[in-house]
Amino acid sequence: xxxxxxxxxxxxxxxxxxxxxxxxxxxxxxxxxxxxxxxxxxxxxxxxxxxxxxxxxxxxxxxxxxxxxxxxxxxxxxxxxxxxxxxxxxxxxxxxxxxxxxxxxxxxxxxxxxxxxxxxxxxxxxxxxxxxxxxxxxxxxxxxxxxxxxxxxxxxxxxxxxxxxxxxxxxxxxxxxxxxxxxxxxxxxxxxxxxxxxxxxxxxxxxxxxxxxxxxxxxxxxxxxxxxxxxxxxxxxxxxxxxxxxxxxxxxxxxxxxxxxxxxxxxxxxxxxxxxxxxxxxxxxxxxxxxxxxxxxxxxxxxxxxxxxxxxxxxxxxxxxxxxxxxxxxxxxxxxxxxxxxxxxxxxxxxxxxxxxxxxxxxxxxxxxxxxxxxxxxxxxxxxxxxxxxxxxxxxxxxxxxxxxxxxxxxxxxxxxxxxxxxxxxxxxxxxxxxx
Length: 436
What we know:
The protein is α/β, with parallel strands linked by helices and about 425 residues long. The chain is about 35% helix and about 10% strand. The protein is built from 14 helices and eleven strands. The longest helix has 23 residues, at about 230-255. The protein is globular.
């Protein structure tokens, strides 16, 4: 199986441009916080196509659990305090969801019960180690292929074939359909209300990344719902705005003390396992780091990226911050200091200015996977490059931490880049910043 990572697009998006121009605190282990420091120190734990975990589908539950515990222990060893665990990689679930099938990445067969509850296990074991556990959901990706017959017969995309759009060799839910938006939120809120998670997390996929020569066919939805908009692009951005704003509102509503789940858009299901704690659940998004290039918009960053989230993914990431629809944002600043098309040293201050005057916490997404990787620019061959990122970011007080992609690299640390970060910057544990 070809390994597909959500970060592959970060490189592809700049290729053309380059050519042309917690839950628990550290005190849970009897350790004092690092001189009172509060910062986000996280790692993404990816499950799509078994990128990080489990190492392959079909492993016995005990082996899967051991591998997962190994990653949680690695986070503790690296003095991290947050794990962002991908629990809905392809319109599926890593918990017993009443909305979507069990993920094929667990057993090798979509819909097959793995015999245990990975999300429940991960939450419990993360909190036992003083780590926050944020549940990571991909909103619209259905499958890494375009054949609905390969989905289980009860899959929502087969029950509602009009919801699905094939594009670029993958299958996506259509963001322009209100019923899709409601369903996606219901599927996510099921996990929020049943588990003691610390956060709801989206990555960088909204409308799919552009594929040359292909068209995302949402004509019927646009004809039905797009009449009030001047352009299709405006309508698409409004669809994603609604997803983000409504999800944030529903996550905040789920924080209400003593609130259970009654009848709703998801079919009136009442779950016995409901959230009984009152800790806030934060809503965060980790977008591709370029909102717009300055050449496109004077408010944009001094970059020359081939993809701009506002124009190509219809994701107005700057608006979400300014409107405070989210609690934290983690732009994927996956380029080295001095990279011509997208300089880390220029993007960090742009994002720091973007969150100014808001209650939205800014963290920086870090490309640990590039450290020492073949084909990467010379800067990434120096194990100190990543540490220099944190040194630079520390000069901007609005930067509240960093998240590393991804867990496999955090644990293996082939070049010592992560160890260098820990030695230079993580002298002791730190408590994750909470929402204001």
